[in-house]
Write a structure and sequence with these properties.
Blueprint: H1 8-19, H2 24-34, E1 67-68, E2 71-76, E3 79-84, E4 100-101, E5 109-114, H3 116-119, H4 129-141, E6 147-150, H5 160-166, E7 174-178, H6 190-233, E8 238-242, H7 264-280, H8 284-298, H9 303-315, H10 319-332, H11 347-359, E9 363-366, H12 367-374, H13 393-412, H14 418-421, H15 430-446, H16 451-464, H17 468-480, H18 490-498, H19 501-510, H20 517-529, H21 535-546, E10 553-554, H22 558-561, H23 567-570, E11 586-588, E12 592-599, E13 605-612, E14 621-627, E15 631-637, E16 642-648, E17 656-663, H24 671-683, E18 695-704, E19 715-719
Parallel strand pairs: 5-6, 5-7, 7-8, 8-9, 16-19
Antiparallel strand pairs: 1-2, 2-3, 3-4, 10-18, 11-18, 12-17, 13-16, 13-18, 14-15, 14-17
Helix pairs in contact: 1-6, 4-13, 5-6, 6-11, 6-24, 7-8, 8-9, 9-10, 15-16, 15-19, 16-20, 17-18, 17-20, 17-21
Length: about 725
């Protein structure tokens, strides 16, 4: 009889402890998760799971599948083709706009497969990597003499295995795979959660990170190995493009350290505060020493220390050192299922692809090495990337030129460097380049990137084509009219009239409305630089639509909270979050919380705040509320909800955006207890809390003229006076 795996022992202990407690509901969850009792139809499950790419028929071996992605096998007059399925129409925008894949003819056939990077995200459908490949081949072999089949799909993950195996039915002469950015940790199964429970119990978050890295490596290696073996058995050459990441410009949101043993969270916070002060004083030697200690304390599971180290190495003109720390930052948080996932190729993914392709003696296009060579050793950034992993035209040219070089070598036996194969014609129109840059500016701003990056993309858009100026202004109008449906606005009509299908696809399919503080500023500044004045009309729109003098403002509304530059706090407030949360209120993961609202000078404003500390304390603790960095009021709270009305004199309100800062006391840290609760959340498919909580806010309303929303809790009135320091 087989013994159960060792990883189940901590899970069994958890079940036993729960059985001895009064939490019967949790016990039922654990038993259902293990499969020991059946799931109820009413059981709460993950409401927004990651999208699944059905690239062939479920439960059918890919080689026998009638489906290759959205295309279905049809046989007419003894000829087999693949025709786009009407029932898959919702998926059509994720694939190439090809109605029918014809039977193999006499021309060499090249399959091109991959995820959104291979799809040409933000350029698609006007310009794609497959189009670039076709342009290169037309120049080398003659127009139309090579048949490129574009099977790239946005949001494709490990399912590329099934796609590649099913695509063998298309009889390719060579195949190119450009994938590895979406290979993270899958939604947890019972076995995965048991492994997670063991990893946390034995090694804390650092143990969880090691477990996740091992999972990604194993799954990546298995995926590549299955594809390479299948193509090897058919004698079909295979080229794999190993993805690279935007190391220079992309920044993951900096987080506080997750739950650490003993009292190390308190030490980490002190080190971080000292390091920030050292940076502000340009004392990078001290900052680097402190940041190294931060990484030692958190054991490399947090991006914050690595980004400080990269900044210090940049100031020292140490490119290799900066690259090392940026790569470590990229890989630091693969374990964190509580944060929004950023597609990226981890070093374990890159290593797995290299290993398998070398074992099968197949060619690779190693973008990390190739981009380093192309940039003369510089760290890859905005020249080659639109965001975290999606490529600019130059990035596409380099990658596809190298892939085409591999194909030419295989089909012709001729070795040509990539730069010989690419010319200026392998590019989109200037109008497409401009619109892709604008979409990239929006995408970067909505993922909390810096003003510098967003402004650069706006400026590049305007430089490529002036027609985007009108699109920019209308987009801001579309965003700021929070209460007007997008499909019933004049701004939308103007965008539809001026913009291309590219603009229509990205703005109206994936856009979300938010106050867009940083993006609006970047657009207005970029427009002014080319002589287009929009500041006054945008400021007027701010006042008309969002001034607290017009209507009360809920500072916890995602529309406003998303402009406060604290993305981690948004996870429980985001209506589109992929993971459910039973906590429908704001949780602070830093010692301070930021909020913004639009005000008008000399307007009397009241704040209504209902808050509490995250757990019971022996005494009440002080928190403070400050407006625009000038005036501050303190009051005492505890673990019970309490409400406060804060009166702000009119002279302290400024025209436009006003900022409120809530500062919380440093809590007592209970890491073991909180990590156990996080694992229980995973068992229930809820948002796990891997980080200390400093405070919680149930409601936070800004109103003018004393008209506050009704609050069921008792209120204590506090005045912020201009005389208070």
């Amino acid at each position: 009889m087989d013994r159960p795996p060792e990883s189940l022992k901590p899970f069994a202990d958890r079940v036993a402890r729960t059985a001895a407690s009064e939490d019967a509901a949790q016990l039922i969850h654990l038993l259902r998760l293990s499969g020991l009792i059946p799931n109820s139809t009413s059981e709460i499950t993950q409401p927004n799971p990651p999208p699944t790419a059905y690239v062939c028929e479920p439960s059918v071996a890919p080689a026998e599948s009638r489906h290759i992605g959205i295309w279905e096998r049809k046989t007419e007059n003894r000829k087999t083709s693949f025709v786009r399925r009407l029932e898959a129409m919702d998926e059509w925008p994720l694939w190439a706009n090809i109605a029918r894949i014809e039977p193999k003819g006499t021309k060499p056939r090249v399959l091109f497969m991959g995820e959104s990077v291979a799809r040409g995200y933000l350029y698609d459908p006007d310009f794609t990597p497959a189009m670039a490949l076709q342009m290169i081949f037309d120049g080398q072999f003659g127009e139309g003499e090579i048949d490129v089949i574009d099977l790239a799909r946005t949001n494709l993950g490990y399912e590329v295995r099934e796609l590649a195996l099913a695509a063998l039915q298309l009889e390719p002469d060579i195949a190119i795979v450009f994938a590895g950015n979406n290979w993270g940790v899958a939604p947890p199964t019972f076995q995965d959660i048991a492994e997670t429970d063991k990893a946390i119990a034995t090694g804390g978050i650092a143990g969880l990170k090691r477990s996740c890295d091992e999972y990604i490596f194993r799954r990546s290696r298995s995926t590549v190995s299955d594809i390479a073996s299948a193509y090897k058995s058919r004698g079909i050459p295979l080229v794999w493009i190993i993805p690279e990441f935007n190391l220079s410009d992309w920044r993951e949101p900096s987080t506080n350290a997750p739950h650490l043993p003993e009292d190390l969270n308190r030490e980490w916070l002190s080190l971080y505060e000292q390091a920030q002060h050292a940076v502000s004083e340009s004392d990078y030697t001290t900052a680097e020493t402190l940041a190294k200690t931060m990484v030692d304390v958190d054991q490399g599971v947090c991006v914050t220390g690595y980004y400080l180290l990269a900044q210090c190495r940049r100031r020292a003109d140490d490119v290799d050192g900066q690259r090392k720390y940026l790569e470590l930052a990229r890989d630091a948080a693969a374990w964190d299922s509580s944060m929004m996932y950023t597609p990226k190729s981890h070093h374990v993914t890159q290593d797995a692809i290299r290993e398998v392709m070398r074992e099968h003696e197949y060619q690779t296009v190693d973008l990390p090495a190739l981009f380093k060579q192309h940039l003369n050793g510089e760290i890859p950034g905005r020249r080659l990337f639109l965001d975290y992993c999606h490529l600019t035209t130059e990035g596409i040219q380099v990658a596809m030129g190298a892939a085409a070089s591999c194909v030419v070598q295989s089909l012709k036996g001729v070795g040509l460097p990539w730069y010989v194969l690419v010319n200026d014609r392998v590019a989109p129109s200037r109008e497409t380049e401009a619109e892709a840059s604008l979409m990239a500016a929006i995408h970067n701003a909505h993922r909390w990137q810096s003003y510098d990056v967003v402004h650069h993309l706006c400026a590049r858009a305007l430089k490529c084509s002036p027609h985007v100026a009108g699109l920019m202004i209308n987009y801001i109008y579309l965003q700021l009219r929070k209460w007007a449906p997008a499909r019933m606005s004049e701004a939308e009509e103007q965008i539809l009239r001026v913009g291309s299908p590219l603009i229509h696809r990205y703005i109206f399919r994936i856009n979300e409305k938010r106050l867009d503080k940083l993006l609006t500023q970047a657009i207005v500044d970029a427009l002014e630089n080319v002589g287009v004045e929009a500041r006054e009309q945008i400021e007027r729109l701010y006042r008309e639509e969002h001034s607290v003098g017009v209507r009360d403002v809920d500072l916890l509304d995602y529309f406003y909270c998303s402009s406060a530059d604290q993305p981690q706090e948004l996870q429980g407030l985001d209506p589109n979050s992929r993971v459910s949360s039973e906590r429908q209120y704001y949780r602070a993961f830093w010692p301070h919380s930021r909020f913004v609202f639009v005000g008008e000078a000399n307007c009397t404003v009241n704040l209504s705040l209902t808050c509490r500390l995250p757990r019971a304390t022996t005494e009440r603790r002080k928190i403070s509320v400050a407006l625009n960095g000038k005036h501050e009021v303190e009051f005492d709270i505890d673990a019970q909800w309490s409400s406060w009305e804060i009166n702000i004199p009119p002279q302290d309100i400024v025209d436009g955006l006003n900022e409120v800062i809530v500062r919380w006391p440093i809590p007592e840290f209970y890491s073991d207890e909180d990590l156990s609760a996080a694992t229980s959340d995973l068992c229930r498919h809820r948002l796990p809390n891997f980080y200390p909580i400093f405070g919680e806010i149930h409601s936070f309303i800004v109103a003018s003229n004393g008209q506050l929303a009704k609050n069921p809790h008792a209120r204590v009135e506090v005045a912020i006076s201009s005389a208070v320091a």
